[in-house]
Design brief:
Blueprint (H helix, E strand, L loop, with lengths): L1 H5 L5 H18 L6 H27 L5 H19 L8 H26 L4 H16 L3 H19 L4 H16 L3 H19 L4 H14 L2 H15 L11
Length: 250
Amino acid sequence: MTSKIYGDDADELISVYTDMGKAEQMGAGGGGGVGAEETSSSHSHEKAIEHFLHAHSIASANHPGSSSETAKTAEVVANGYLTMAMSSAKPALTPDAVEDALRSSETYFTEAADIFLLEKGINHPDTIRVTEQLAKINIKLKDFEAAKKYAKTVLESKIEVYGDMSDETATSQQTLGTICLSQANFEEAHKLLKKAQHTLTQLLGPNAKRVKDIEKMIVIIEQSPQMRDKLSKEKHLHNRPAFSNNFKVK
């Protein structure tokens, strides 16, 4: 009915197809039934993505080049693929299908990030948000070098926007520290996680769950041989008597 009113490629259809996709996603998350209901649930994500892709196609055609509308719909498609990859709907996706969904999500998040970067700048909340998603997706894909690149960009932007002592900055420090830990870069991971711990302790208190979770990671790092030796040397230097150049001349 809407397409008859506005035409097949009117801007008004972008929100229509987006809403249809979101409705399909909600159907995929519900249920718990068996048989036909399970099959319907497992295919709802695919139907949702079809609607999101249709909305993105209209936005791209009506707003060629870099436009916020195209970036927004690209982000919607990316989130659709990400939701499908992380879904517990039955039947479950195969590992290859999960990876394909994550790769597709990465492609559309990259498109959105490139447009937001060009249109709004690196420190805009939209740019930060999609770049942060790219870091998380690459963690899931175990591409830690790519994840680290995106996470560092996000952290630098958040420091500029929110300052050092902020929940947003601490969250990114924790993410980047976790990535460094996955790469066995214990020293950098330790430094980042200590910063996150300090900030969140000030903001949330020492007994907050997030603070405790970071403390557990720090303990694991400090028990590693290379960090144990480094911390031992630092403690020795710290406790060593200060050098004095006072002496008597006879």
